[in-house]
Write a structure and sequence with these properties.
The chain is an alpha/beta fold and about 250 residues long. It contains 11 helices and 10 strands.
Length: about 250
């Protein structure tokens, strides 16, 4: 039995891209204030599942979603889309900083949602940049072009921007795939710290990373969620032979 309440829940989820069946009858719960990783071979549906939680799949032509997806027990269709995107933030594989200043990037969301104004914006920027370990590095050049930052700094900036609107959930789609090993370690440490305050759901191709950082892990294969559970158990005592084959490197 889990010791944390489910923050996200999916029941009999099916996602189709035209004639392609991307997710097949997926049912799962994502615990609150935990870090959950999704692993599996390329094309197995990990990113599709991730995007389902803030309805980014709605933007894809000919995408059809069936089943129930809940946030705090409420169906996503019942949540106003702007509110949903604020409560469920997204960090992408490659940093997608805006061509604005460092400060403007961080406070973009609070400005759009009219969460603060004037001096309060600087306080939000300091809080969020401090949370991602970037404040001391950029506090003297907040008006500089954000695109002047290193790739790793840009990824931390995008995480700061995501948490500036005080979300409940952070979705992270392979946030370390473009980074070197040292930068990856910093982002992994940051993800663990963030999971104390947010529900964090991460897609990763790196099984070692999932084993290092995750409280729980789900394994997907050909659009099916084969199993999900505590990370240590999934890697050392998988219930399904297909999971064992994947985590031991027999395929994938």
């Amino acid at each position: 039995m889990r010791d944390a309440a489910p923050k996200l829940k999916i029941v009999n989820l099916n996602v189709h891209y035209g004639d392609f069946w991307a997710l097949r009858n997926v049912t799962a719960e994502i615990a609150e204030h935990r870090l959950t990783s999704l692993i599996g071979p390329s094309g197995c549906g990990k990113s599709t599942l991730l995007r389902t939680f803030n309805r980014l799949n709605d933007l894809i032509p000919r995408c059809r979603v069936e089943g129930r997806v809940e946030l705090d027990g409420r169906a996503l269709e019942e949540v106003e889309l702007t509110t949903l995107r604020r409560r469920v933030g997204m960090v992408f594989q490659r940093p997608n900083a805006f061509p604005l200043s460092i400060l403007e990037n961080v406070v973009y969301g609070p400005a759009v949602h009219r969460m603060a104004r004037g001096p309060d914006m600087l306080a939000i920027a300091e809080r969020c940049l401090t949370a991602v370990g970037l404040w001391d590095e950029v506090k003297d050049r907040l008006t500089a072009d954000a695109l002047s930052l290193s790739l790793e700094q840009l990824q931390r900036l995008c995480i700061a921007r995501a948490i500036a609107v005080e979300p409940d959930v952070l979705l992270m789609d392979e946030p370390c795939s473009a980074l070197d090993p040292i930068s990856t370690l910093r982002i992994e440490t940051l993800m663990r710290e963030l999971s104390r305050r947010y529900t964090v759901l991460v897609v990763t191709h790196n099984m070692q990373q999932a084993a290092r950082i995750s409280d729980e892990t789900g394994f997907l294969l050909l659009g099916e969620l084969i199993e999900m559970g505590p990370t240590a158990g999934l890697f050392t005592r998988p219930r399904d032979r297909r999971t064992e084959d994947y985590v031991t490197g027999r395929y994938g």
